[in-house]
Amino acid sequence: MKVLSPSAGRICDIALVHFAERGYDASSLNDIAVVAGMRKPSLYAHFKSKDDLFGAVLDLALATERQYVEDRFAAAATSPVGLDTLYTDHLAHRYESSAALRFLLRTAFFPPAELKGAVSTGFEAYLDRMRELFGISIKAKYPALSANDLTIFQDAYIGLIDSLHVELIYGNEHTYRRRVAALWRILGDSLALAAGQVARG
Fold it and tell me: InterPro entries, alphabetically (predicted)?
């Protein structure tokens, strides 16, 4: 992520909320400039185009949410909590409170055609890091799991995350809560079963 001047950073913060609420196509550089208290030509002194600003906002959102994920997994690693608290325990609240996450999910599901490659690359790297952190967590809890089992459970976890992301965008809180409980029940039971089979040899 490139270093931004304070003015450019403020524009990015405003644009993040704007893009999160309206999406790429319905967003207006003029509207963003007005909220930033400047004229549109002044915005162009910091960003050469809408795509340039959108790319900077994408970098900001990815960095913000990656750090949030790192913090959630680090907190879970130092407290006696179940695996079902890994990231998903506060996800619905995070979606409501974080324009970065709302922007990221909206952009990942509906990327601007001309920026699809950058969006896909960034979002996949974000999910890959989450997958890696989950692997570290379950390896610490179930050290006897085989590498093959670990890979399967990491993939299942990302499937769980994908499902919850869809529910956040299209569903409601009640359905989200039901889904997260059901998915964790299946994943948790499967992990315990696999670990038990390994322990029994």
Answer: Homeodomain-like_sf, HTH-type_TetR-like_transc_reg, HTH_TetR
What CATH homologous superfamily does 61-200 map to? Tetracycline Repressor, domain 2 (1.10.357.10)
Measure the CA–CA gap between 126 and 75, rounded to whole angstroms: 18
* pLDDT of res. 3: 73
pLDDT in tens, 22-42: 999 999 999 999 999 999 999
Report pTM. Answer: 0.90
pLDDT at 85 over 80: no
- Say if CB 64 and CB 98 are below 8 A apart: yes
Give me Rg for the CA atoms of the chain.
19
- In order of 61, 81, 136, 137, the CA distances from 140 in angstroms are 29, 13, 6, 5
Q: Can you give the length of the chain in residues? A: 201
Domain parsing of the chain, residue ranges:
61-200
